[in-house]
Protein: Argininosuccinate synthase
Amino acid sequence: MSDIKKVVLAYSGGLDTSVIVKWLQETYNCEVVTFTADIGQGEEVEPARAKAKAMGIKEIYIDDLREEFARDFVFPMFRANAIYEGEYLLGTSIARPLIAKRLIEIANETGADAISHGATGKGNDQVRFELGAYALKPGIQVIAPWREWDLTSRETLMDYCAKHEIPVDYANAKKKSPYSMDANLLHISYEGGNLEDPWWEAEDPDMWRWTVAPEQAPDQPTYLEITYEKGDIVAINGEAMSPATVMEYLNKVGGENGIGRLDIVENRYVGMKSRGCYETPAGTIMMKAHRGIESITLDREAAHLKDELMPRYAKLVYNGYWWSPERKMLQLAIDESQKVVNGDVRVKLYKGSVSVVGRRSPDSLFDEKIATFEDDAGAYDQKDAEGFIKLNALRLRIAADKGRDIL
Structure:
């Protein structure tokens, strides 16, 4: 412990990380640098500065990372159509490599020996933070208080605050939501409380923050025209937007239409199953629209190969391997495929559902002359299909002739 002189802490200003500040100072007798990131969580981050100052912190970093998050992390992931275990759009997972990156940058700027985070020893985030940190700075030391201290509940944390005169709003701390929540531009997640019973239906209106219930969404559908360049959204309804602005807008209109609610049990990397609820309005729309524009621009085999690679890509993101060589290799292949993913998609939002109702592209491979059920004027010779079928059936016919049992 004595060789650690300075630690960079991922600091939210909440109860847990406020306790960690004091605990680091006392346990390691070190200087603490706080880092607070605005990645679109929808809460004011500036109050963290005052809280950090009140605890004697001299070096305080508060960074607006919304555009970097959307541009360099979310958008590349959505080019891959990444979904973990068929449903989860990786909202928490994709934020962690950015936070790890900034922790290391600040450690380098300030000459810190270590970084610290408030992730628990049961969750995935400890893995994601630390894999990212070690990939970017192999010799960095990591302090994970939840794996070291004996503070095991909110009550013990509040007792610690009282004993050490840590400035905490006790009234609000006691009124805190029973759910553990995490939010950024891509989603807000809910875990704990009643959700720990997988049979309990998550219909608590006080839990959901971003979306109306689909039953309460408008009776008239909302239509959006989404413009893509090289697989990324660049405009909505003809208005050019930055990546972060795209997500903010889609979260708003999607939430108003009840888009993006999800209730799943997922397999954590550390080995346990976990039940969580998510609101991902922008991501749900982006996923549907992106597959819509790819449907007319990607070659069949390129599209199928992408779908085969996607689960591996999603697993890498979920498990914390954003900075791994295999994720970077997959990203290069995916980005190469996106050079032709240009054009417009029209989507219909209605009471919790997203439907693609139109798509067009200067790079479209859809040929009306060939696809038509009407007279194609010789564009496609239907007689060619006979030989195609017989050649593909050859191995099946040989096996049948040899008496192979295929049932």
In short: The chain has three domains: 6-66+92-176, 183-298+341-360, 370-401. The CA atoms of residues 20 and 26 lie 10 Å apart. The mean pLDDT is 94.
